[in-house]
Amino acid sequence: MALEAGDKAPSFKIGSDDGEVLTSASLKGAPYVVYFYPKDDTSGCTKEAIGFSESLKKFEKAGVRVIGVSKDSIESHKKFRTKYKLKVTLGSDPETKMAKDWGVWGEKTLYGRKYMGMERATFLVNAKGVIEQAWRKVKVPGHVEAVLEAAKAL
Prior knowledge:
The protein has 6 helices and 9 strands. By secondary structure, it is α+β, with helices and mostly antiparallel strands. It has one domain (13-152): Glutaredoxin, CATH 3.40.30.10. Strand 1 and strand 2 form a beta hairpin. The chain is globular.
């Protein structure tokens, strides 16, 4: 089931690369962005993470936290953060529970081969825990700017 604007954001609890345990309850009361991405240190994911990191101060000025989530380990996230000097929080969802709850884990096809994987998707969640906007099957160019504009409008 695809989540969309107006839906309550599913609850979650994941670890992050900075040692924090991120939960939907701990984020309630302030808006946040969750962007799901397939894999650390791959071209599209790196461009997206750098884009969100470069715009992080603008998101913070709008009072919006940004969290990137993949199934990669916390150790992988730490290496990814260090290698590209990333500033966004990276959440680890190794069992893909959060990804499944948010409807972004599913069958993908690459060169005719089918496999299970993470859809590149972004959700803007308001302070009440309701999804304001959802971007599915994201294309990286221009995406961070679109999310930032929506975040500023909250």
